[in-house]
Amino acid sequence: MVDQPAHETTASRDARFTTEALSWLPEITRFARALAGNAPDGDDLAQETFLRAFRSWSSYMPGTDCRRWLTTICRNIYLTRVARDALVQPVGDDADLDTFATVQSRQHARDVGVDHLFERLELGSAISEAIMRLPEPYRVVVQLVDVDGMTYDDAALCLDLPIGTVRSRLFRARRLLQDALIDHARDAGLSTTP
Amino acid sequence: MMSDSNPPTEQLRELDCRHVIRRLWDFLDGRVAETEREQIVAHLEWCHGCASHYQFEQEFLSAVGRLRRDGHDYDALRSQITARLSTLGLSKDD
Q1: Is ipTM strictly over 0.85?
Q2: CA dist B90 → A11, A132, A144, A179, B93 (Å)
């Protein structure tokens, strides 16, 4: 454990907080929104996260993973706001089934003429909205790993889940997301099939 | 499902399409061992069906990953948080 500098001034402490903690604001906000399922509640959760982090800054060990520390705080606040049972809702996680199911998803995409859907650059808002519509256990994993590039191991630590569960939820999330986006593309008339 | 007529090597025969599809996301996520990675790469070079599916999944993950550069303006939220923090003692001049 690295101790806080005993002689650290308030200004130095605040500068470290600004540099090390507040720099993660975009990532923590996106995670908070994924937890909350919408932007206003997510922003409120992110704000509470940084307030609590500042109050607890003396317990942060310099040199450790600040983003993970903040993510854990954020998740803990969220858990106190909702019943734990609501978060750990039973989900059917079968990574193999979900992986194979994407073959059908792609075939469906081809059938409706949107096989090259994901090459389109204007799809960002549709993807964001589709992520927000995923059930919470899936959207938080896809947000951490696929959007923000966190490793399975770090996501597992942040979410207090086994790595295998992160993997299976991620695969389910991807399949659900693909299906939603293919339907969106078809309904939006993005099909290339006459 | 092997969809090309080029004669496969013995190693590629052993690695069938079902296995490649099952492992595709692990492969894309960099979570397969080196030997298996090489086998999958070799298979994808030979099997157009799996290569096409690989490309589809890769484009999907790239599209999702682009959200990281979402262009969202966090300045307003940052100001709001900083203002609240200043009431807790965070100095503003850093």
Answers
A1: no
A2: 8, 33, 29, 46, 9
